[in-house]
Amino acid sequence: MDLHLQNKNALVCGSTQGIGKATAILLAKEGVNVTLIARNEEKLKAVLEELNACQFERSREQCHSYLVADFSKPEELRKVIENSNLQFHILVNNTGGPRSGAILDATLDEFQQAFSQHLLCNHILVQAVVPFMKTQCFGRIINVISTSVKEPIPGLGVSNTIRNAVGNWSKTLAEEIGSHGITVNNVLPGFTETVRLSEIIKTKAKNENKSIEQMTEIMKSYSPAKRFAKPEETASAIVFLASEKASYINGINLPVDGGRTKSL
């Protein structure tokens, strides 16, 4: 399927590992000019080399780049984006989740930090990219959040709260800018083979007095697929939503979880 993404420009957040990195590579293979953004410059350089090695065969003039920004500092992010003077057709909001733990044990600082890192940074980026998208009558904003938007996940109190805030922000935004050819959708990954999942498994294993191997098998059993997702599987859904083919899909929450989420 030709997704008609050649020569589009994309900003992919959290793109040095996991779902963000897989999305950046897959977009590059579809002919997109990808700008990576994360806080670790050495890792950004390494991923940039991978992007340059997978040039799309029908688009020989692709230009990939990166920006360095720490999403725990929203105003720093704002300055980086404003100084870049880059224009994007596609924005993939993707940031590592808050620390796990019971909601009753969460501090106010944890809520404030997560709200800032996720919702406020998403909002800063959207305000930066939407004016150009409007001039193109084309825009794709995809937020990588969590299945907790549909069903809260035990032990992820702060994350459950903030992910739902992002979900409702996203739905409101979809209503406001849909008439300009811009879609806003959320992708809800299930348990995916990432550094984040490894941390969650270790924490749950410790809390429940089980080995990491035992907890891994228990968590795999939650999905009808009986396995964890590969980052590339979630990336494929993101890239489709970024394409011309998904032009009438707007304001949705799309689980990519192997069927784990029980609600429709």
TrEMBL record:
<dbReference type="InterPro" id="IPR002347">
    <property type="entry name" value="SDR_fam"/>
</dbReference>
<dbReference type="InterPro" id="IPR036291">
    <property type="entry name" value="NAD(P)-bd_dom_sf"/>
</dbReference>
<protein>
    <submittedName>
        <fullName>Short-chain dehydrogenase</fullName>
    </submittedName>
</protein>
<dbReference type="Pfam" id="PF13561">
    <property type="entry name" value="adh_short_C2"/>
</dbReference>
<dbReference type="InterPro" id="IPR050259">
    <property type="entry name" value="SDR"/>
</dbReference>
<comment type="similarity">
    <text>Belongs to the short-chain dehydrogenases/reductases (SDR) family.</text>
</comment>
